[in-house]
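Entry — protein

Goal — fold tokens:
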Amino acid sequence: ISLGEEVLLYYGKDWENSWNEHIEDWTTAENEQDDVFAKNVTDTLGLHWDQQNNVDSIIWTVEEQKNQPYPPYLETVCRFQPPEEQDCKDDCNNDYYCTIRWSLSMSELHEHPCDVMSRSSIDGNDWYFVRMNITDNSSSQEEMTQYYVEFLPRYAIRLVNRKYTKDQYSRGVFREVIGLPDGIFPDHWMDLKEDDGI
């Protein structure tokens, strides 16, 4: 494909007909009253769209969100890897509750929904005290521990969409199987026999 050339993707007549019907019948009314799919964060709460990924922005605490809540489709997730051996503070070390100091984890597999309890600034850097519930699936019985994690840096916290709140989960969106029209492949590619069982 040379510079300036175009590629036409043709999904077949059935897909095209379904798309045209969707365009004719589509309406925003199905989601107008559903706050979960409101996407204009800037207009509603003064939260710039880029703040979700801006590591220099401030994450609001649970208390601050009482007066200035995040949109219902957003949640905070914190990057934290529970230690293999409990290293909780002595005054609160038990099976279901653990206060621990944050340690670096690079894996996105260790991102968990979390609540920001407080924020403090030390030498110009913001540090967070967060709460999260983490379930251990390694044993035969699932065990949940509530962690209170101290000195979490801003870059270890993200604002993300809650499950099933992105546009593709909206009611009335277009969904159709993408087909391949007859004649799109050369004949010498079509060499499978019906009795091959494929």
User: Anything to note?
Assistant: Residues 13-25 form the longest helix (13 residues). Residues 36-49 have pLDDT under 50 and may be disordered.
